[in-house]
Design a protein that fits this description.
The chain has 121 residues and is mostly beta strands. It starts with 8 loop residues before the first strand and ends in a 10-residue tail after the last strand.
Amino acid sequence: FFMSLFSVTVRLAGIHGTNVNYTGRVEVLYKGKWGKICRDKWDINDVKVVCTQLGFKSALAEFIGIDIKDKNVAIVLSNVACRGTESALRSCWHTDGDDNCVDDTGAQAMCEPSKLAIEIS
């Protein structure tokens, strides 16, 4: 079924100790708290939407395989199913909360790093 969130703020929770901002666990601000997304049904189309929403050029991978489990971060969205053309994650089909999530690692994303557009003429 379709649930709509009024607005979804998205971030990538990166690897601690690095300043890499284009890859990590996808987290959404949900009811005032940052939470993660269940990986069930997560695919490259979902990542395309996240990367677009964050201002990156494109999506590179839907799973990086880095272990960034955090028991303090709850699963707040499940069954996210984007077509890949949406401008924001809130437009994608999903269910609120943890819907029998099998893998608690959380959805991950790798976006194409933005390059500084400096042209010297």
